[in-house]
## 1
Amino acid sequence: MSAPPTSTAASPTSRVQAIVFTTLEGYVIYETYYEQLNDIQKCEVRQSFDTISTNHELRHGSELVGRFKNGKVSGLVCGAVVGYALGTGYCDELMLSSFLERMFEVLVEVMDVDEVKGRPAMDGGVLVGNYDVLCHVVDAMCVDGVVEEVGVEGVRKSLVLGSEKWTGGGRGLRGVVRSLKSSIGR
């Protein structure tokens, strides 16, 4: 019997398969998949996230765990937002929970989210209003499904370096976000 790999990057089957952020009501704010999935498969993944949320009081700091086919599912509530991750191989529930906790810490810090009654005032509006930052944080912390050990300062540096290409002529990601906001009347 061979020893397990020491790093999740050592095995192509040990990785994050999906990251999704929703409101407490279940409305999807952001989702990314690191595998080629059709719409039905994405719906099944979302359903697995919904399943682990059912019959739980979703309060700040609540951790949710479950299984999906051959993978593990983890969720974490931050303010009025739920972050979910699906992992396979050695990406178990503990690793996924830790990853989501670090991601929320980075998002709260980088987006400068205020605290209300001892918890971050994170909600869907904050993430939509900072969608470009959300995308960048996810991309910096999870590259092709492999979790990167990037903290707040690393993300801030990459945000500063990447901001020039985002704002180039208003056609970058910020321009897309502005268009989305104007189309929904924000």
## 2
Amino acid sequence: MVIEGKLAIGLLCVLLGVALTSYSRLTRASESNFRFTILGIWLFTRIGLFIAIYGLMGIDPQSDVMGYYLPQGKAAMRGLLVYRDFSTSYAPIFPYVVASAMKWVWASPKMIVLLAILADGVSLPLWMGATARLLPMVDARRAALLYVANATPLVNVVFEGQNQAWVAAFLAAAAWLYARGRVRLTAVVLSIPVVLVKFLSLLTVPAFIFWSKKRIAFAGAFAVLPLLVYGTLLAKGVDILVPLKIEGTDRTSGSLPFLATSVLNSFGVAVSPRVYDAITVLALGVLVLWFLRQNPRLPPAAALWALVMTMMTLLLFSKKAYTAYLVLVFFPICALVASRTSDWLKSAAFGVFGAVAMIERTLWFRWLGARQLPEFTQHPVGARLSLHVVTFVFVDLVLLAFYGWLWYLARAQLRSLSADPLRSSVAASREQ
């Protein structure tokens, strides 16, 4: 029923996204009417579903909430020291925030889901405020419509309560500040999720720093909080690399290494996970060098497209590539699609992408038992499982094709900005 339910949600979101983006009066409405519409859709799809699922239906939270967030929050409640007394793949402050929320607000794992919803509610108006300054009005509004109607952020936040929404909220605040030329504050805000949520947020920094005139000030402002927090832990003799060690052993579906490992293993070729790690680092390094080769006076909108390129590169090449990571930059992805496409068919295709990304992880866990493909195809049940394997490979290929498409669109946007002397001159006049 879980798979069927998510498929139904995905289909409904596709239809909703097409309906909203095809109704041109929405994008031409007054600012107050448009914001009221977005708020209404968000309240229905987030708060309304939260009340229905966890209140009326009495369903308990699932996924990482029960498997990771709750046990780590309870460990923090007992006064244990992160990384020393208990392990976590998240940033050091995260378990203590979970513990505080459950102790002082609501002693239920549903509180963790509510935190994700609140973070999503904070990020949405901030993203809208940022894109309103960085993009044409119609594109910014279509991005908001695509976001509230997409299955990926909806399910990740309401059904799974994952902390990617936390990072997205700080990223949205950083984009809002960056669009207004507040370089140092942008850097400070970007540094918060590094100590509060997860190391993964470090990947967002290049998108902001490379086109800033105040790179040294940016780097200095960004470094203060991580140095203070991680320096304090080091002084206590704590191994601050615990998250990286845990993450380094994980392997997921939804990436080129997953499919490559399956193909190579079928020929008896074993590839060390460290090889894939090296390829990922190389791919990200090449991307950073490509960023540096672009016009250094690009307008602030370049940060949005750089965020998308960075995330797509990670998801394509990393051996750990949960589709949930998309939530970090999902609004910029929506802004990209809104900027490059306008017809209903492409809006529908983007809705399909959201549905595929939303359900891929579920299929991997329920059909493959979170294993590599060769192990699964050798399962004795046979024909039924083979059909699942073929279907799942198709789903992953579709997902990777969408990643490649989004990477291409983001690259085209950046190149157009770099080649446009008018926009570059406008960027040069701004205090970035």
## 3
Amino acid sequence: MRVSRIFIPTLREIPSEAETVSHQLMLRAGLVRKLASGIYSLLPMGFRTFKKIEKIIREEMNKTGAQELLMSAVLPAEFYQASGRWQAFGSEMFRFKDRNGRDFCLGPTHEEIFTETVKEIRSYKSLPLTLYQIQTKYRDERRPRFGVMRAREFVMKDAYSFDRDNDGLDESYKKMHNAYCKTFDRCGLDYIVVDADTGAMGGSGSQEFMVISEIGEAEIAYCDNCGFAANVEKAECIAENSDEKSPIEECCCLVETPDVKTIDDLTEFFGCSSKKFAKTLIYKADNKIIAAMVRGDREVNETKLQNYLGCINLELADPETVMKVTNAEVGFAGPVGLINIDIIVDLEVACMSNFIVGANNTGYHIKNVNIEKDFKPSGIMDIRNIIQGDKCSKCNGTIKIAHGIEVGHIFKLGTKYSNALNCIYLDENGKEKPMVMGCYGIGINRTMAAIIEQNHDKDGIIWPVSVAPYHVIVIPVNYAQEDQMKASEKIYNELKAAGIEAILDDRKERPGVKFKDADLIGIPIRITVGRKIGENIVEFKMRDSSDVMELDVKEAIDLVKKVIKSHDCPNE
């Protein structure tokens, strides 16, 4: 392809709305254009890389024996109603009615639809089975951001496995885990696999494939000592009993604390560590009011709390509700005297003695409070966020925290959807059993952005060869020199004949402009045809290196072939 004929609307200035490097470079390099908040069009160069990633995914899926199909994006409500997710998805689901008043949605994910389709299987002899699709999904994100990283319309590869039992699911899950590792290896990503919360998908367990990045919205807790890694939403916290419990004080003590609401205010007022406080937060869990308690220097992990309560919606109560429940302003809630309200206590609080809490009276706190003596919790469990420096629950090592971009997620769904939608098979004895399911997703747009986040410099994108829109760019230094143009054409044609994806920059532009555009777009290999072409010499440069080599034309072409062969590029 000739650059003069390619639609590449590059930008010199950084767009003001672009917050992240990947968003900036995707706009500047002419890969995407924004249509609306969270909705983007893929332009030719971006689409070529998108298709390369898609091919890699498809190749690795097919190697596992998974079969590709394509479902509709317009989906009837009844299947989501049967699973309970019509309500669980909340406002993220794009809902609409057809002309007959029937409820539909734009597919946010397809567990229910695949399950409904596979119901036609009746015999155990047809299992295991794994089906997948590569298709557009729709989620009405509250806050679309970071370009295609968190968008309202995106393309996902979603696969679903159907097995006879949990042992079969374990095998299917392992196959997909390995296929995902190979996929992201081939895409040139540096990633880690972390334990994760199953969220609205449900099931017994899941893992996320995370690309470490400062702009990642997910937080990862990991331990260098034992290799443990988990999403902060999922990471288990342990109660650290470094201090022995003090003898329990017989009586509580009401203390006036005017205008003292925050933990910092309290530690200064009482002259003690924040570890001596237990804060009580009032939540609305669906239609129920509950209280959650964590140590003063900790934060409630709302995912853990929501999973424990089994509620669909969980949010902090508004000031009016807090006043109604506690008879006090926000900042003075406490467990003592709360009536007809479940009090969920974190493990750390259960290990404390003689601690300080809000008095349910504006301007007052209570000292020397103890569990069982002064209040009885409804439940004691891990409901706090893990933080850097905490102890690892697996080996007692030290936890570190990093940010990550989720590019893939695999789930052990079990029988949640097969039970809800009556997806059963007959075993060897003719007995009906629910199929045991797994679910496996990769965000293709997000993977493309994550590759850019990890592979760029001040001049632009540095695409891994396997996913670059083109492998080689041939640049004649002076378009007015006939010998340079003829040699460039010949090299370009030889590369194409060898099956190498090459472009020729035939524009009547200064060489500096051509070099800048090539670097911005991120073409991995550059062959520059200049004054030494009379000696059959060209310059060879890799995008990820500052080294420039002078080579004979044949040597340059042979080296291009060698570089391409050494990378695991998708098959054409």
## 4
Amino acid sequence: MLALAFGFLPGCNRKEEEERADRAVSTSEGASEGKSNTPAAPHGGPEKGRRVELIFPDGLRVADPEVNQLIEDVLNVCASANYEEFRLLWSARHDPLSRDEFAQSWPAVRHVRVRALEKAMIETAAEEVNKGGDPAAQSAADAALETVYLTLVEVEVDPAHRVAERLPDNSVVLMLVRENGRWRLANATKTMRNWLKEKVARG
């Protein structure tokens, strides 16, 4: 994943989030790496003299520049090993890895590449839409849809580093959600992760 750079994220920690996002109803804008011949454009920064290659291919960028900017910000913040900035990129509804996990994981990372960025529509939890508790708004809230993005990132780690032994997979899927007018990182459910990984594998 950024399974290291973002800290071995297991996916959503709450049952209600799992149930909410598992009801994904459609996907559209976005592309997987195999659909583009555009050469990769590296982005990155130093971390205590160690250079990590960070790649976000132009062919994967979407129409919304704010989404692209969040992806770049995540890569660069991780490369700078700045946990405070990393934490600020997350949705208030989701918990990122701890400071200690972040500090222990990043030194093992050599190479980070965005493999896919896809737009999706998911059903929004009724309690989030109908916060006022108005019964008349319940049916509309139940059918409300939320636009999100899913991104798959591959991470290459130093095989000699002890962190590599704990890494079952070198890729991770994260969700981008709109919160207070800005895009933020969030955990993706197992269904979401499997769907995007299978899509990328099919090319």
